[in-house]
Description:
The complex is a heterodimer.
Chain A: H1 6-51, H2 55-73, H3 81-101, H4 105-123, H5 129-149, H6 153-181, E1 190-191, E2 205-206, E3 208-210, H7 217-220, H8 224-247, E4 287-294, E5 308-315, E6 317-319, E7 322-324, E8 334-337, E9 349-355, E10 362-363, E11 369-370, E12 375-381, E13 386-388, H9 391-394, E14 398-404, E15 415-417, E16 432-433, E17 436-437, H10 440-453, H11 460-473, E18 478-479, H12 492-498, E19 502-503, H13 505-518, E20 523-531, E21 534-535, E22 540-544, E23 548-556, E24 578-582, H14 600-618, H15 622-644, H16 647-662, H17 674-704, H18 706-717, H19 720-731, H20 742-757, H21 761-778, H22 786-807
Parallel strand pairs in A: 18-19
Antiparallel strand pairs in A: 1-2, 4-9, 4-22, 5-20, 6-7, 8-12, 9-14, 10-13, 11-14, 12-13, 15-24, 16-17, 20-23, 21-22, 23-24
Helix pairs in contact in A: 1-2, 1-4, 1-5, 1-6, 2-4, 3-4, 4-5, 5-6, 6-8, 10-11, 10-12, 10-13, 11-13, 18-22, 19-22, 20-21, 21-22
Chain B: E1 8-15, H1 17-36, H2 39-61, E2 66-71, E3 75-77, E4 81-90, E5 97-103, E6 106-108, E7 117-123, E8 128-136, E9 141-145, E10 148-152, E11 159-165, E12 169-174, E13 179-180, H3 182-200, E14 209-215, H4 227-233, E15 237-242, E16 249-254, H5 263-286, E17 290-295, E18 303-306, H6 309-321, H7 330-337, E19 346-351, H8 369-375, E20 378-382, E21 392-393
Parallel strand pairs in B: 3-12, 16-17, 16-19, 19-20
Antiparallel strand pairs in B: 1-11, 2-4, 4-8, 5-7, 5-10, 6-9, 9-12, 10-11, 13-21, 14-15, 17-18
Amino acid sequence: MNDTPPAALAAGRRRRQNDRPRNTSMYLERLLQINMAALAALGTLMLGLGQREPALPVLMLIAAVGSVWLTDVTGWFQLNRTVAGLAALIATLVSARNLLTYEGALQILAMANLLIYLQVILLFQRKDARTYWQLAMLSFLQVVVAAPFSQGAWFGFMLVVYLFTALSALGLLFLHRESLRHLRPPHEPRRRSPSASQRWPLTTAIASLTGSGGTGTAATAVGRDLFARLAWIGATTLVFTAVMFFVVPRPGRSNWRGVAPAPKRLIGYSGRVTLGELGQIVEDPDEVLRIHFEDPQSGQPYPVSGEIYLHGTAMTHYSGGQWLVRGGRGSRGMQIVRPSAGEKPDLLVDQKITMEPLDREEVFCVWPFVPLEANEQLIFDQDRQRLLRPTYLARSRFSFSLGTTALRNGTQPVLAPAERAIAPRFLLHMPTIDGASALPELVALADRWAADSGLRPNQRIALARHFERQMAHSGQFRYSLDPPERNPEVDPVEDFIANNPVGHCEYFATALALMLRSQGIPARMIIGYKTDEWNQMGRFFQVRQLHAHTWVEVYLRPRDLPPELIRGEDHWDWAAGGWLRLDATAPATDEIAPVATHFSAWHRAVSWLDTVWSSYVVEMDGSRQRRAVYEPIVRAIRETYETLTDPQMWKALFQHLTTALRLRGESIRQWFSWRGALVAGTICAALTLLGWLGFRVARKLYHARAPTVVSRLANRGRVEFYRRLENLLARRGLTRSAGQTQREFARVAASRLRDGEGANPAVDDALEEIVGAFYRVRFGDRPLDTRHAQTVEHALRTIAQVVEAERR
Amino acid sequence: MKPSAASRRQVRLAICREGWYYLVVLAFVFGGAMLRQINLLLAMAGMMAGPMLLSWRLVVVLQRGLTVHRKVPRGIFAGNPISIGVHLANGRRRGASWAVAVEDEVVQDGSPPMRPEVYFGHIPAGESRAKAYHGCLPRRGQYRLGPLRLSTRFPFGLLRRTITVDEIDHIYVYPKLGKLTRHWLHRHHEALEGTQRQRQQPRAGAEGDFFGLRQWRHGDNRRWIHWRSSARHETLVVRQFEQPRNRDVAVLVDLWQPAQAGAEELATVELAVSFAATVVAEACRRSGGELLLATTGDDRQPIRGAMSGPLLHEAMQQLAVARAAPEDRLAQMLDATLGRMGAGTEVVLISTRSVDLADDGLGEVWRDPARRALRRRIRCIDASSEALQRYYHVE
């Protein structure tokens, strides 16, 4: 049995009812608090990921969750204004010190850190509308700061998430502010200060009228349809952003790349190779470059299969376990890459390469390269046979294009022409110690292999191939990224040959090059990349740090070249001889064999997405915009126009349709074409759009024509014009009483207006005209025609002028 | 009232303060993107511009199909609480409206306008919501309500679109009512009795139904003396008869004030009007008879009619807008009203000054003997004197 007295129940009910508005508005504010905390955390996450600094996002995430619980929900911890101000001052001072210490981009990052500190301070304060605005603004500034630094596709994804969160937060903040603005205390009569007269009690009272609506309405505004509306805004904003992004012209000729992230350090590649120095090599999947091939004539992708070798630097001089560059004719310097004056080779393939920011100036590509256009950013180092770019460009993403004749039938052949004749003497250098060979074991092994092959010394290609096979496939040598401890007393390659036949590609290439030299075959070692990672979605080869590689090139004089290589359609100029590529590295063992995982497809998709993002968003400059956006649009418009104005097309379409109607039972394939369907669909869509636009324009014009409107209103509302008259006269304080007829009221109004204005027959006539029209319409059931409607409209304007003149 | 093309007076779109801040930040981001050639900043500029443009679109779309009505009371008494209802309906079949503020304008001539605002947080499609604004209007008079302004800043408070609906209403704030004192009521009763006697004398034979006994007064018909009761009470006692107690009342309000009126003079005017309103309300409450109300100060015609609710409202409206004037219009008012009064009309002349009906300035008024007969029955009340407190007080 419930012993609660009814009075107590009623009081409780009343209390609950009183509490309801407060609770519902708290619901809105709670949502807002959570949303703002999420916004702050997202902004910091984007900034932190751009800096590759996970500590700050984690700190902010903890602060965001903690502030919602400790400050907003329970109120256990709230910074008062003094403490918050002090904390903000300290944060500013710390950031200012960093600002003065650092330089360049780091200064911006110091400012960004200040934004994070301020956000944390704000999160732990008791929040009002101003605090929310500050939080939103700081978060947005974080994203602005992060934008130039964050180049990956993940930033785009995060930006979309941020957009929806921000829209939700701003929408909720707006509703919260509006409800607070209209949340006023119950009305209490206000009074002036006591005046001289106390006889009349209302002398001191002040007129006041206060609105309502703040309480209770706030939470009802927050529902599924609100978030659906905000989601619609977000989706439409994305579409708008895409259109604006691609349409806004990019001025200037320089590349749009923003601020580059910190350049990556190349692992596995070095300009000076010292055997045994690297020790264990860690395979790094970080991206180095992407390369895709195009047919320069058609602009279509050029299919390439198998592995491709990207040339970096050529090493010619080996001594004491170290490869150096020592040219045969002294230094020849650098020269800018320019196209030659002659005709371009027929079998040219365009290689488009995008390199990530790196800590080295070397540029990698498939050799031999053929410049298609002058590129002052590409420099050819003739001594070391390498391509370079300026140092300042190395620290940003770098794209360039070069032709190559190395690809034949979709593969990269092992033999390539030499651009100039080589004096083979410096490619035959062998290290010596006190006049004796420093590599006796290596030479001995080479002699043994040469003898075992049964080949003559002038059969250089065959001999080199034999040596390559022996190194790679004899099983005598084993590939490992973690070579054993070398004997410091002997040359590392000698140790590799004689004692520890385990090593990575540098050992294999060095050993092969020196063994060939010992047999009188000029050879050099090439450092570069070898990849077979083909991205089908992006149609490019991916080159990563782990693809770093060394191989050997043997110089062949023209007389050493096999005749079958230069027969037929081969156009290369072999007058200077050629280079035979030899890759002696043993196949990878199981320990390092790439393992296909379930995430391979995912990685490929992410990689492709990254490419698209980089190419069409981060690096969208004027020329790319012209190629990727403007020209296709213009082309599509032109083609559509030509298609639509082509009588043959219409004729064919008509024939297709008639045929289709006749051939009911036959295969749809006989008459259906996607092109025709596309054109028909486009026409239908265009006609629908035109019709809709026409309807809208016609409706606007219809509304804009005042007499027509009057006529329409007169016919529909019948006495709408008279209502307008009453509204006009009401401004003058003239209202028709219940017992007054329209004509009586018009007479009174005429006399009153006459008093204010003086004799004005136009007013009398206007009133008479309107009232007469009213009686005709209202009681005579005769709608106004256009002429009468114009007259009434003119009369109304006359009355309006008089009333306005009096009011002024 | 529907904010259709016909009733819309003005549509105004303005950028709010937050909107200007937003535009400055947008310009900063866009400028940074173009100057520093950073594509991601350009994308962010697009993401900022989108909500701005959609705000412009939404404030237009979400105000379509909204209809607003105002519910105005016929009249209220000065100083009493007032509540004016605002009814907002969303006539669209799809799409709710959010954060719609309806601002009304309440203005009395010569006073700064008041702009109460009613906020509707959410109006689902096809539904309506009702709110009200409250307050107090201490000054009597006619107030103009309107135009109504529907405004919304949804969804982000960046843009405000306001539709001004040219819909005008008027509300009369009647004079504040006071309380008549016992003294007034007693004198009123005496006057009533006198009227009764005057009415009954010519038709002494028609006494009506017996009602009771009372003490004899001068002028009573001797035939009404109830001798048996007189003997028992040792004083003359007369019979009372049930007679129609209707009587006509004329309230004449002379609102004069000096050209440079001070607070005292203004208070006197208000007291005079309030007293007149109280007398009229008391008369109409009892009903029966006719009421004539006339005021000086403007050119309004006197009100005359059977005492009733509608007449009370009409009288209150006249008193609500009655204005004092420095011109002396008393003679004019008397001239216009005395001829319309019946013989037994109780005439109350309430003035803001001391009035002497025998004054030379009123000589023309009393030239007619019939009017001279009425002059004796006119009760003059000077609102400026302390004597008013004997008849009436107001809190």
